[in-house]
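User: For documentation purposes, I need each entry recorded in a consistent format: the amino acid sequence on its own, followed directly by the corresponding structure tokens. There are two entries in this batch. Please keep commentary to a minimum and don't merge the entries.

Assistant: Recorded as requested. Entry 1:
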Amino acid sequence: MKRSNNKILLIVLIVLIGGFVLTRVLRSPALEKNLEDSLLKIDTAKVTELRITPSAQKGEIKLIRNSNTWKVQHNNLTAAAENRALKNAIGALAAIQPDRVVSRKKEKWSNYKVDSTGTNVRIFTGNEMEAN
């Protein structure tokens, strides 16, 4: 009786391990990563302008670098920006690592704000747009 219980347990264990291995091999790669490792490849020292278009506001916010100083422009207003905060923000943008696609279905994009209702950030080096 004891030997048959051990055999049953061993068979159940082998079936569970086989199911786990099949799941990891066949199903998981599609769910784990389907994007490049580096989303933004930018040289943070060459960034001259950031343009942010928030979903809630009308108009565009421009962060412009002239030599070592940054300025913020929105509509007709211009103000000085804190250099350290902008360097940290640009560094954070460059360090973004994608995990996976939220949804491939266009109907669900508005739920996650990945369509036109989301915030748009464009990064420029000189006159060239590096990332959108």
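Entry 2:
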Amino acid sequence: EKNAYAQILSALKNQKTEIHFKNFKDYKKLSSIYKTLLDDNPDIFWVKTAASGCKYNGKKVFDTYMRFTYSMSKDKMKSTQKQLQKKANALLKGLPKSSEYAKVKYIYEQVVDNVSYDYVTTSKKENQLITSAMLKGKSVCAGYTKMYTYLLQKAGISCMMLSGKADKQSHAWDIV
């Protein structure tokens, strides 16, 4: 699973459209690995679709693969990454040097002071991304959590992004 994770991450960073896994036959598990990878890397925002599959030779799997499409070119992706880094640096400029709690609270305040909840376009995929929160200042819970995770990671603070149900609706949050 660690090798598959690393292979998927490399493919996404290089915008490969297809990858094959030599020694990983459980293609259904790839979806879970992919979701974990996105939770660990909130700054991956350029993937449009990801699908996994396999080829059988009788009853035996002989090829497991993933295919990706992207929402932007590699140049646009790199340009947007630079914008995210610039914004993160500006938001973290006043990061306290005292306790970890003070840092966590400061970053939390930066997120809630700089992002408003988008009640209008909540069904759009773009509001599920870090770019909606950090660059547009308007997002839903997924954008908030990705921004918070990203800034915490930049500050060297361990955290974990989670998703699940709250009041029977999909929701995302962070554990710090």
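Summary note for entry 2:
The radius of gyration is 18 Å.
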